[in-house]
Amino acid sequence: MVASVRIATKSGRIRLIAEDRDDIEVDGRATVVTDDGRTTVETTGNALEVRVPIGCDVVAGTVSGKVETKGPLGGVAIVTESGRVTVEQASSADVRTASARIEVGRIGGEFRAHTNSGRITAEASGASDVSTASGRITLSEVSGRVRANCTSGRIEVRLVGAHDVEAETVSGRVTIELPPGTRPHLPDDPAEARPPDCDCTIIARSVSGRVSVT
Amino acid sequence: MPTSEAELDVRVGTIMFTDLVGFTEYNDSVGDAAALAVLDRQVSILGALLDGHADGRLVKEIGDGLMVWFAEAANGVVCAIAFLAAINEARRVSAFPLAMRVGVHHGEAIARGDDLVGRTVNIASRVADLAGPGELLVSEDALRACADRQPEVRLQPVGPASVRGVEEPIWLHRFAS
After folding, report:
1. What are the residues facing A51 on neighbouring strands?
2. How much is the pLDDT for A128?
3. Which residues neighbour A52 within 8 Å (Cβ) at sequence distance 6 or greater?
4. A114 contacts in B (CB within 8 Å)?
5. Does the N-terminal or the C-terminal CB of chain B have fewer CB atoms within 10 Å?
6. What are the structural domains, with CATH classification, of chain B?
7. In chain B, helix, strand, coil percent, each to 5?
């Protein structure tokens, strides 16, 4: 059973499909090497479609091509320069781009995303650590701690459960939506200890935008 | 006259790049004096750490970023972890205003006076660019160069970085605190 795959290409698009199988199937010209239980797929500039077992861990990168995943993957880590990244479903995701949009669907565990210019959106995620220099951050259903950092762009976070949030932007609105009944601690000083009657700490800052915690 | 390959002063070692996230905007909002104090503070924190690593030296400041050289890869990785931890802790107690990102790579660099140039330097800079605020990324080459002195930390794989002019992908790992 293939449990872990690494994929690298220069300019081609990568399409990853998790399906009911034990092996890996590569559609596209590439070198495939299996060493110590880990499969590495490398190509210099061709589009790749890679089919892997459900729950497989994938580490992938391209320069300018898009990366798209379909089906339930394990841990996913993706780097692109300018190619948009779309992850449908994974147990965890770490996505980095220089200038491209990052869109994820349902991430069961940790979600990490960093881009210099591009929007970041997640339908559902666990603990999330995301940053963009210029672009909106939208985390629609977070069930874990949140750290969101943005230079010019809006930050919108909707929590399911009481979790700590640290959201900072220089020029943009920050909106944090908490579940009904949550008793948040909103400290003036981030180092301030949380009082015992509060169940989460919300630090939300914007230099020139409105901050709203509801 | 161009320098021939044979005349190049090639050094093998580890390069750490750092960058302060949002420094330009911070400078705009607080003014030059306060921004300069932040730069002095980060150099002072690094200086204290380099005192314990005889093979490490600050090569240069590049705007709000730093470029640091280590002869030993393990020392570079350990110092990068300690530097980031020190900045993160200072930030936690409001003693430092900005998050730092750090990248480490190992390979051959060309000495040019006190400066270092070349492919390894370019890759290390790119590795730092891919790190998020408060995060350290280390290339697989740097980890491999640590040999039996691998840092006892949890590392998570991060996708391969591509660098202009470098054919092979640079596989990266994230230091998970």
Report:
1. A17, A25
2. 96
3. A2, A5, A16, A17, A18, A19, A21, A24, A58, A73
4. 130-132, 135
5. N
6. 15-176 (3.30.70.1230)
7. 40, 35, 25
Residue B177: per-residue pLDDT? 63
Half-sphere exposure of A73 (CA within 13 A, CB side): 31
How many secondary structure helices (H) and strands (E) does chain B include?
A: 5, 8
Angle at A167 between CA A198 and CA B172, to 5 degrees: 120
d(CA A116, CA A2): 33
Cβ neighbours for B80, distance < 8 A, ≥ 6 positions apart = B16, B102, B104, B136, B138, B175
Phi, psi of B120 (to 5 degrees): -60, -40
If we measure between CA atoms, which residue out of A5, A15, A23 comes closest to residue A62?
A15
- Let me know how many helices (H) and strands (E) chain A has, helices first: 0, 21
Kindly state the tokens that stand for A91.
Answer: 């147990």
Between chains, do B94 and A170 touch, taking CB under 8 Å as contact?
no
* Least confident piece of the model among A45-49, A50-54, A180-184, B40-44: A45-49
Q: pTM score, two decimals?
A: 0.87
CA separation for the pair A111, B144 (Å, rounded): 27
Task: Quote the CA–CA distance of B68 and B106 in Å, as a whole number.
Answer: 12
CB count, 10 Å around CB of B114? 10
pLDDT classification of B76: cutoffs 50, 70, 90 = very high
Instruction: Please judge whether B171 and A59 are an interchain contact, meaning their C-beta atoms are less than 8 angstroms apart.
Output: yes
CA-CA distance, B135 to B18, in Å (whole number)?
10
Q: Which of B29, B129, B133 sits opposite A207 (nearest CB)?
A: B29
Tell me the shortest Cα–Cα distance from A17 to chain B, in angstroms: 17
Q: From the list A59, A62, A114, which residue is nearest B157 (CB)?
A: A59
Dist CA A125 CA A213 (whole Å): 20
Between B27 and B6, residue with greater pLDDT: B27
Q: Among A96, A170, A206, which would you mutate to test the B interface (most chain B Cβ atoms within 10 Å of its Cβ)?
A: A96
Cβ-Cβ contacts under 8 Å between A and B: the total is 76
Whether B104 and B138 have beta carbons less than 8 Å apart is answered as yes
Query: Is the predicted pLDDT of residue B158 greater than 80, yes or no?
Result: yes
